[in-house]
Design a protein that fits this description.
globular, 2 domains, seven-stranded mixed sheet, alpha/beta, Lyase 2-enoyl-coa Hydratase, Chain  A, domain 2, 2-enoyl-CoA Hydratase, Chain A, domain 1, three-stranded mixed sheet, single chain
Length: 260
């Protein structure tokens, strides 16, 4: 992996891996890390060779949230400016035209939990913990937690997690639908790569349109959602990938998709 200060990034065989790299502070999000992650996501969006992304953390934890030591020294005006912008990187992950898999080992708390919530699929270690502890600090989750968590696990579960500020373990996270897979720590990246390896061989256009349609389902009623789904489907029909899929089916082989 190539190191760029607080973020490690690697691209291989259509899969990009981004690793938060401040293990000495459990990958607390500094302003530098925030910027580097945003820039990396922008580059990935423009890189047609990348079809799937894995987001993970170096060391014992996925991410413990924002760097509170740095934040305490920040003028209130600057904090307000950041919050008014909203959860920029979370929105970049959500709107990325490629699936994003969170490979979570150890703690995913506060802003770290919100990064994981923004991803499309979450693979967690058995010792992982997810939590939004902001109410213990006299604030609320403002990196998308109050909006993303209810959509993912339902209203009642989200209210308990947000209002109490208490973290939940991986087993409960899996039961309530926050996590797709729970595995021994040494198997987490293996599973994330397995999922990415499967998806990278699918049609990039189909993956993009499927993600757009699922995202839209959060925002609209069924009638408008069905209409959007139909248009997304029709976009795929004239593509070379769709023609290749039909040809491969008739020839009893796996299709080779190019994203065209």
């Amino acid at each position: 992996m190539e190191s760029e200060e607080e973020l490690l990034h690697e691209a291989n065989d259509h899969v990009a891996t981004l690793m938060l790299n401040r293990p000495q502070v459990h990958n607390a999000i500094s302003m530098t890390m925030r910027r580097l992650l945003g820039e990396a996501l922008d580059r990935i969006e423009e890189d047609d060779d990348i079809r799937v992304v894995i987001l993970t953390g170096a060391g014992p934890s996925f991410c413990s949230g924002v760097d509170l030591k740095e934040r305490r020294g920040m003028p209130e005006k600057e904090v307000r400016r950041l919050r008014e912008k909203g959860p920029v990187n979370q929105m970049k992950i959500i709107n990325l035209s490629k699936p994003v898999i969170a490979a979570v080992c150890g703690n995913a708390l506060a802003g770290g939990c919100e990064l994981a919530l923004a991803c499309d699929i979450r693979v967690a270690s058995e010792d992982a913990r997810f939590g939004l502890p902001e109410t213990n600090l006299g604030i609320i989750p403002a990196g998308g937690g109050t909006q993303l968590l209810p959509r993912l696990v339902g209203d009642a579960q989200a209210r308990e997690i947000i209002f109490t500020g208490r973290p939940i373990d991986a087993a409960r996270a899996e039961r309530i639908g926050l996590v797709n897979y729970v595995l021994p720590r040494e198997k987490v990246m293996e599973k994330a790569r397995e999922l990415a390896g499967y998806m990278k061989d699918l049609s990039p256009t189909a993956l993009k349109k499927a993600k757009e349609a699922v995202n839209r389902s959060r925002e609209v009623g069924l009638v408008e959602g069905f209409a959007f789904e139909a248009q997304a489907y029709l976009t795929c029909i004239p593509t070379k990938d769709r023609i290749e899929a039909l040809r491969a089916y008739s020839e009893k082989r796996r299709p080779i998709f190019t994203g065209e």
